[in-house]
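Lesson 9: reading folded outputs for more than one chain in a single document. The general rule is that every protein is listed as its sequence immediately followed by its structure tokens, and records are never interleaved. Here is the first one.
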Amino acid sequence: MSLSIRKSRLMLAILLATSLVPVALAEPGQIEKALQREHHKAAEHKGVVRQLAEREKALANRLGAIEARMQAAEARIEKQEAELAVIRKEEAHYAELYDAVRVKREKAARELRRLLDLLWPISAQGMHEGSRSADSWDSADRRFQWTGSVYAKVRAALEVVRRQEQELAGVLARQKELELQVDQQLAVINADKDALLRDRLSLNARIGQVSTQRQDLEGELQNILKAIQQLNYQLVNQRSRKFDSYKAILPWPVAGRVVTQFNPEGRPSRRGIGIATGEGSTVRSVFWGKVVHNDVLRGLGKVVILFHGGDYYSLYAYLSDVTVQPGQEVEKDEPLGHAGYYPEAHGNGVYFELRFHQKPINPLLWLMPAQ
């Protein structure tokens, strides 16, 4: 194929590419307006972030107050339960004392019954026989003395039983008093626990609300921060991604050596440069841009054309494969594919062009100096 046909096809591809370029990229005035809108959005987002921070602080203060109330209630209940434990211990002591006194009383009662059992036959016999039962005065005197001794023991046993009954009554009264204190203390504790439970339920409900609000706030905040980050990134990039600001400092599309020079007036005409490189070398974008062409052009093999805004284009030809799609936005140094067979290099290589307003410009004036 003649060089003129190749040029025609290349110009057709670039014209087609131009028709695919978004207007926002082609018109700097609209870009400036978009930048102003993004600045305004960023300012609004910063205001929302401040409001969210104030709301978050207020919620944290409320939570702190509720936590303080919870701690005070728990301390109060802990003190009440300690007092109740003392009362319970004293109540247990009196229960043991009551059991001991009851055992002594039962023992005294058994002794009294035994003495009464001894007196009853004698008393019954005396009432039945009268004075006739006495064989002599000596016998009567001995019986009288014995009977008197038994009656004295009975009176003593009765006194012991009476005192023990009084002691039991005192112990029972103290037990009832302690039981009343226990009931009162439990009532206070249960009331405090009920109040604490209500506080806990209220706190849990509030915490649920706060947690939901906080999650919503954090989500909003994260979204705003991401938006601001993205806006800042876009603003910086919009300002810095001006192709004409990178003259003589663009990276090379592929590592290698130049085998054909830029010479549009030569015969044959060369509108770009040819770079010989190693097999499988990665071809990369020299600047941020959008893929506007990704197809095979006869005589140039697989070709990728990028639009960089401001009517600047870059072309990469003789690729063995392509890793980007039409319409895709690419970063600077992003892989576009791999170098294929380039006839001018008699091996692997890439043909590279730069164009401004559809006119070829010398890539060597825009690329960084070769090392």
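And here is the second record, again sequence then tokens.
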Amino acid sequence: MRRRRRNKRNTKIFVGITLCLLLVMTIGYAAFQTNLNITAKGNIKDYNAAWQLEKNIVSSGDGLYIDTYENNRYIYRGQNPNNYIEFNGELWRIIAIEPDDTLKIIKKESIGVIPWDTNSSENGRNNSNNTYCQISSGYYNGCNAWAAVSGNFINGNYSGTVTQDASLNTYLNNDYYNSLGEDKEYIISHIFYTGPTAGNDSPINEEYELEKSRTWNGKIGLMNTTDFLKASTNSNCITISLSRSASAPCTLENGNYLDENKYETWTINSYGGTNITYPTSGIRTVSAYFTHETDGLIQGGVSGSYAISSSYLVRPVVFLKSNIKLMGDGTESNPYKII
């Protein structure tokens, strides 16, 4: 009898110990799993296009470089880097991976020869509501303010009201945007730097700071002057004054894919900072563009012309959402595709 009671008691003790051990092991395992999951999640970077592309950073030749002028930004440089992307059923080029992981892309071919600004009755700005754009002579050469502003628009010693966008801005963000197919869902409204160029002999770092002094938020714009300068792998492609250089350090042949069309092309920036060489009225009417060939010289630099000029190409620029993913290798025959 005593033996049976003792056996019962021993059994209860054994069961109790076993249950305690199981409970401790279960709690410990759960804590271990939780810690493992937290640690793993903390080490995982979002798998997006930026993450894919940043694995291929180079320090020489054609390819993706660290942008030395802005933290956490990457730019494509060279004569023909693998930065082709299919968008809207067309070939575009990736200019940069922005700090917010959006992709800045530019259409490979232009959409035509279009004035930067006009004085048409539909979208011109030559009226009393845009006092910055008024020229005392009465002849309208266009207006180099890319977008309407609240208060006064200031450029150098000139200021005044700008209540309407440039005609090219209006066209790109209405007619052209509406003509795009389903891929336009990937376009995000983004900040574009629209400040002026500094003028002659201005190095990239000064240009960049001036560009950033004025911003516009929208869907479709144009490239910056510094986009063009930075795209070259030629160490001499560093200043605006090269617009009249026969040595052509910024051309396609000297390592600049953005010169691939070999023709004068508009940028989003006005021309006319501290060293403007145009007539007094020019600071309000001259917009920047990059050149390829003028008067028989292959120049490959940045210059300026009246905004109303219709002799320059337009290559739209957009920013793609940060959460897209890509397939392809970025070559012209196998461009990146959004998936």
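What the second record shows: The chain has two domains: 1-44, 109-324+332-338.
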